[in-house]
């Protein structure tokens, strides 16, 4: 496995792999790897012969009050996980090589960037779209694998690729969960033992919403109120949003429809968590 922080070097390695006839896959991450990330590598390796995993805690997607400085960076464990997963190349650039002094170009996906996560994390998706576009320009992958865990992020990336005619296929992989249902996340390490127990309420309340809709509830506002009430029944949970939306546009719904997505962002103690569930109603 090659490990480099140099843009020129990763380009050289990818070009050499392409020369050998390999398809190229990219798995962008911020490190602190867990089985969710590893599942993306496994999917990537099924589809291409050369997998580049990037580790970069991208400062431009964090607001000043967010957790950029305390974000976990267990680099040795991450490299061991990459080796075990069969990654071919780890690209882990310095901030100064991706954002040198004078850096001034940004990618903004309009509309999608101001909803939901965008409302609570202004500027976040500008940072995400910009770094992913830059990584695509550096790695030139044929495919890139993302988790549906960050549901709005994968929608945004797919739209960016479509709108900018980027020649990369976006592969979206299912959310890997802990046995009790909590979506795996690098941020779960921030949870105290009691917050960790509480955190299962996110996935549970999404299941409650799904049950209500499957049982014939058509009033989306009523379902959203139930989700919020279940979340807020826990004293250390602070809800930012708990909604049922159209799965493509992420726009609000008044009535249920055959396919929907439930989306939650909530603080459990001091830790901000997100989760989602795609909800499909059987055809009548
Ligand atoms: P991050 O390191 O949190 O920026 O995530 C890097 C990639 O891993 C993103 O595409 C995430 O959606 C994906 N990811 C994070 N957590 C999970 C999970 N529990 N299951 C599947 N994919 C995940």
Automatic annotation (TrEMBL):
Gene3D superfamilies: HUPs, Pantoate-beta-alanine ligase, C-terminal domain. InterPro entries: Pantoate_ligase, Pantoate_ligase_C, Rossmann-like_a/b/a_fold. Catalyzes the condensation of pantoate with beta-alanine in an ATP-dependent reaction via a pantoyl-adenylate intermediate. Its EC number is 6.3.2.1. GO terms for cellular component: cytosol. Its main location: cytoplasm. ATP binds at residues 30-37, 147-150, 176, 184-187. The keyword Ligase applies. It is found in: Cytoplasm. This is Pantothenate synthetase. Pathway: Cofactor biosynthesis; (R)-pantothenate biosynthesis; (R)-pantothenate from (R)-pantoate and beta-alanine: step 1/1. Belongs to the pantothenate synthetase family. GO terms for molecular function: ATP binding; pantoate-beta-alanine ligase activity. The gene is panC. Beta-alanine binds at residue 61. The lineage of its organism: Bacteria, Pseudomonadati, Planctomycetota, Planctomycetia, Planctomycetales. The reaction proceeds by a bi uni uni bi ping pong mechanism. The keyword Electron transport does not apply. It holds the Pfam family Pantoate_ligase. It catalyses: (R)-pantoate + beta-alanine + ATP = (R)-pantothenate + AMP + diphosphate + H(+). Homodimer. It comes from the Bacteria. Keywords: ATP-binding, Cytoplasm, Ligase, Nucleotide-binding, Pantothenate biosynthesis. (R)-pantoate binds at residues 61, 153. The active site is at residue 37. GO terms for biological process: pantothenate biosynthetic process. It comes from Planctomicrobium piriforme.
């Amino acid at each position: 496995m090659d490990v480099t922080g140099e843009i020129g070097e990763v380009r050289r390695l990818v070009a050499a792999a392409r020369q050998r006839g390999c398809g190229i896959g990219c798995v962008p991450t911020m490190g602190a790897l867990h089985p969710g990330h590893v599942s993306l590598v496994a999917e990537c390796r099924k589809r291409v012969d050369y997998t580049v995993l990037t580790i970069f805690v991208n400062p431009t997607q964090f607001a000043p009050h967010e957790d950029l400085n305390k974000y976990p960076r267990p680099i040795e464990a991450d490299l061991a996980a990459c080796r075990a997963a069969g990654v071919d190349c780890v690209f882990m650039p310095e901030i100064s090589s991706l954002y040198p002094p004078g850096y001034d170009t940004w990618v903004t996906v309009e509309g999608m960037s101001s909803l939901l996560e965008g409302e609570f994390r202004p500027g976040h998706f500008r940072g995400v779209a910009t770094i992913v576009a830059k990584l695509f320009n550096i790695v030139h992958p044929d495919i890139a694998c993302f988790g549906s865990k960050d549901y709005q992020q994968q929608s945004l990336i797919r739209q960016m690729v479509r709108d900018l005619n980027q020649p990369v296929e976006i592969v979206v992989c299912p959310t890997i969960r802990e046995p009790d249902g909590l979506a795996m996340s690098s941020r779960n390490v921030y949870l105290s033992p009691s917050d960790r127990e509480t955190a299962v309420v996110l996935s549970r309340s999404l299941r409650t919403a799904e049950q209500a809709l499957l049982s014939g509830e058509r009033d989306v506002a009523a379902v959203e109120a139930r989700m919020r009430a279940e979340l807020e029944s826990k004293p250390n949970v602070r809800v930012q949003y708990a909604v049922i939306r159209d799965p493509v546009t992420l726009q609000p719904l008044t009535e249920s429809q055959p396919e929907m997505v439930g989306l939650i962002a909530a603080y459990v103690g001091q830790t901000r968590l997100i989760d989602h569930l795609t909800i499909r109603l059987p055809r009548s």
